[in-house]
Amino acid sequence: MKTFLNNSSRLGDGGVHMVLIFADQTDGQFKKTAFEALSYGAKLAEQLGTTAEALVLGTPTSDLAALGKYGVKKVHQVATEALNVFDAQVYTKVITEVVQSTGATVLVLAHNNTGRAIAGRLSARLKAAMVPAAVSLPDTTNGFVVKKVVFSGKAFANVSLNTDIKIISLNMNAFKAVAGEGTAEVVSVNVAVDAPKVKVTSTDKVTGEIPLTEATRVVSGGRGLKGPENWGIVEDLAHALDAALACSRPVADANWRPHHEHVGQTGIAIAPNLYVAAGISGAIQHLAGVNRSKVIVVINKDAEAPFFKAADYGVVGDVFEILPKLTEEVKKLKGA
Ligand SMILES: Cc1cc2nc3c(=O)[nH]c(=O)nc-3n(C[C@H](O)[C@H](O)[C@H](O)COP(=O)(O)OP(=O)(O)OC[C@H]3O[C@@H](n4cnc5c(N)ncnc54)[C@H](O)[C@@H]3O)c2cc1C
User: What are the angstrom distances between the C-alpha of 305 and each of 161, 167, 309?
Assistant: First the structure.
C-alpha cells in the first residue's frame, strides 16, 4: 500500500502530478469550505496541467459523484463507518496512506477546525512543506510560491514550497466555490483504520443556529449592548439577515453569550461577506479575527471608536436605536 514518491514526481520536472483535495464532511454533509477547497484544487490542477481528485473519509449521505461539479475527475472514498467521527490521529494516518498510494503531489484541505488539526501532522508524516491559511492560488512561474496571511491577518507572506509533496490549507472564504457540470468516478480505497486512541464519551452540539465558520453574514455584539437581556435586538437583525451571531471576548467572558460565539485573536477567526459589529470598540485583538470580512459595518455611539478605521460603512449612533431600525429596513427589503 505504501508507495513513496521518488524525485521523478517533483513538480517542475515535467513528471505526472495529481492534486488531491480532502473534502471533509460533518454529519454526512459536505461543508462550504470543502467546496471551496475542491474548486481551488481543480483550478490549481488546471494551472499545473494535471488532474484534480477528491478524498472522502467515511460514508457521507451526500452524492459523491456530484463532487465532479467542482472539477474533480475522481473521488477516492475510504468508506469505513468509524471515519464518520473525526479523530486527528486516525485521519492523519489514513490520508497519509492515500496520498502515498495515489501518488498525489499536492494535497489541498480547508483551513477549518479539521484542517487545522491535521495539516501539521500530515506535513510531518509526509515530509511535506505546508502552508496554513493560504489565500490565493500558488505562483508556479518560478517554483511554487503560496500567499498566506500572517500576524493575525495584518500582513501577507509568500511562502516557497520545495518538497516533493506540498500541502495547502486554504483559508475560509479565500476562494469562491464554483459549481459547474460534471460527475466524478467514485472509487473505493481500502486502508486499515486504527481504533482511535482518544475515546469521545459525549458530544454537545449547537443546533438551530448557523455555524459561525460557515456563515456568509455575521451580526456581532459587544459590551455596548450593556447586558445579555438586550441581545434580542442583535438576534432580530441576525434572523432578518440570515446571519450567524458573534460577540466580543468580554461578552463571552461575562457569560452574556456562549464562548463559541467569541471572535478574535483568542476566539474564532471568520471571513464572512458581511460583518456587522454593534457596540464593539474594535480592539486589535478583536479585529484580528474579523478583518478578513468582505464588508464591515460598524455601529458605535463613539465617533472615535477604533473600529471605524476598519469599517466599510459606519453608523455613529446608539445600538438600541439603530439595530431595530436596521432590522425593520432589512425586513422591508426582503418583503419587497
Ligand atoms: C491577549 C488578549 C487577547 C484578546 N482576545 C480577544 C478576542 O479574541 N476577541 C475580542 O473581542 N477581544 C479580545 N481581547 C479583548 C480586547 O482587547 C478588548 O478588550 C475587547 O475586544 C473589547 O470588547 P468590546 O469592544 O465589546 O468592549 P469595549 O471595549 O468596552 O467597547 C464597547 C464599545 O461599545 C460602544 N458603546 C457603548 N454603548 C453603546 C451604545 N449604546 N450604542 C453604540 N455603541 C455603544 C463604546 O463606545 C465602545 O466602543 C483580548 C485581549 C487580550 C489582552
Answer: 41, 40, 8
